[in-house]
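Issue 218. Parser rejects a valid record. Input:
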Amino acid sequence: MATIYATHPRYPGHDLPGHVERAERIRAVWRELDESGLTARMQPLQPQAVDTDLVLTVHSADYLDLLRRISATPRTTLLDPDTYVGP
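Output the parser choked on:
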């Protein structure tokens, strides 16, 4: 049985200096996975766009509308002290 992990080359673009979730952290995780040999034992899965109806099976329409409004904003937005989104 394979272990699958979600990854994407754009992940380092999620970078807010001073925040724990930043490009430096994902690069360090990738480096450790490579150096330990775990990358070779796992199957990468790149997230892909999904149909809105599928998203609505696990999220409300209001939440989806919020994400659409935020994604149209050309700046980083703090949803709460731990969670941020950017363009």
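Fixed in the parser; the record now loads. The chain has a mean pLDDT of 90.
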